[in-house]
Design brief:
By secondary structure, this protein is an alpha/beta fold. 39% of the residues lie in helices and 11% in strands. The N terminus is likely disordered.
Length: 414
């Protein structure tokens, strides 16, 4: 397949869900707080290098190489938007939980910057919370997007001395939950309509292309993403999940209101699409997932495409890698190639996303009567692709650490 060959969903390329290992839901449990877990980011110029040292801890990367990335942050005053976005999400989750009568405080801790996970766990313990349910701002299966957070939570429990007193579980990976997918469906619809308005007469099917983009990871890590007993193709669960979600988005976009009827709606759903990658780093000799979004845009321009819609489907908010790698670099590549470019928003605090995250909490939290914390008490686990709903508890060896096993919460050992 070329870098930009249209990807059309073939049911044979995804596994029959009945062949995947047991994914029965966990019974509701008496959690007493929600823990929002995220990556973190600097909030001033003086924070940038210390933050990047935290991100790359243990890799021996000198400061002069870190400065190559630091200029992305420095261009925005040294402030990543991710912490402000997490404050908004924390407040939105609290409001939605309150509206449902779910008496659960929402704490927040980061992997790489203040407030750190250790601070959040000490805060939880001081408030009397002993059983936490983590909501991670990463939707997919991969080492860096799932298991590393689970390892960091285990390490934070050890560092704070709370390993025997505080228990942490995690909501399931929500890549194909309606709350995560709906904002992208709406965003792609709106971007295609803007494209049609900006380029009157464009044939969207022949002259536009939707680029679903996510963070590239080493090929060796991609292969081991997901549980060993459910490898989903040559690039593991990570790529399979993204392709499945992109397929759902494109199949759904023609059915969203305000796109017109008949052939106009069908045209939106028929626009070709590809899965591409961004933010590659590391040694050039190490294979990473490809194609890079900028290479894909250049190739599309040579094929007569007039417009691209960029969909950051791998991310939940407009953090630095979205703002720099897509809004600065990818859209500049499109302009220089003579293409009209549109970038779709991430879910952020979209009402559907906030509602969906609280739905995920409701699946796992016990009400007073012992049933799930939903309006009916019934456990509903919606998923829009054949791959879901994903596991409530990670399988043994899921998304293996490339440097060897480490303790991790919310999973079956090892």
């Amino acid at each position: 397949m070329s870098a930009t060959e249209s990807t059309v969903h073939d049911p044979g390329t995804l596994p029959d869900p009945s062949t995947l290992p047991d994914r029965d839901p966990q019974p509701p449990a008496p959690y007493d707080a929600v823990l929002l877990v995220s990556f973190g980011g600097p909030e001033g110029q003086d924070d940038v290098l210390p933050f990047l040292r935290n991100v790359t801890r243990g890799r021996g990367i000198p400061d002069e190489r870190l400065e190559e990335v630091a200029h992305h942050y420095r261009a925005f005053g040294g402030v990543s938007p991710i912490n402000a976005q997490n404050r908004e999400l924390q407040a939105a989750l609290r409001a939605e939980l309150d509206a449902r009568g779910m008496d659960l405080p929402v704490l927040w801790g980061n992997r790489n910057w203040d407030p750190f996970l250790t601070d959040a766990l000490r805060e939880a313990h001081a408030a009397g919370h002993r059983r936490l349910l983590a909501v991670v701002t990463s939707a997919y299966s991969s080492y860096s997007g799932c298991r590393q957070y689970r390892e960091d939570l285990a390490a934070a429990l050890e560092e704070t001395g709370l390993a025997g007193e505080v228990t942490i579980d995690k909501v399931r990976n929500y890549f194909d939950h309606p709350g995560f997918v709906t904002p992208f469906v709406e965003g792609v619809r709106d971007a295609l309509l803007r494209t049609r308005a900006a380029l009157p007469g464009i044939d969207l099917v022949r002259e536009s292309h939707v680029l679903f983009v996510t963070h590239s990871i080493p090929t060796s890590t991609a292969v081991t993403s997901g549980p060993p007993d459910a490898r989903l193709g040559p690039e593991g669960a990570y790529s399979a999940q993204h392709r499945a979600v992109a397929d759902v988005v494109m199949a759904s976009v023609g059915g969203v209101s305000d796109v017109g009827t008949g052939s106009a709606a069908a045209q939106l759903a028929s626009v070709p699409w590809s899965l591409v990658y961004q933010s590659r780093s590391g040694a050039p000799s190490t294979p990473w997932l490809e194609p890079d979004i900028n290479d894909a845009i250049t190739e599309l321009a040579g094929q007569g495409v007039k417009a691209v819609v960029i969909v950051p489907i791998g991310f939940v908010s407009d953090h630095m890698e979205v703002m720099w790698d897509l809004d600065e670099e990818a859209l500049t590549t499109a302009r220089e190639a003579g293409l009209h470019g549109e970038r779709v928003p991430t879910p952020g605090v979209h009402p559907a996303f906030v509602t969906g995250l609280v739905d995920l909490v409701g699946e796992r939290v016990a009400r007073a009567d012992g049933t799930a914390g939903t309006a009916t008490g019934a456990v509903s686990r919606p998923a829009l692709s054949p791959l879901g709903p994903w596991y409530d508890v990670c399988r043994p060896g899921c998304c293996a650490n490339p440097r060897g096993p480490r303790p991790a919460v919310a999973g079956l050992a090892p």
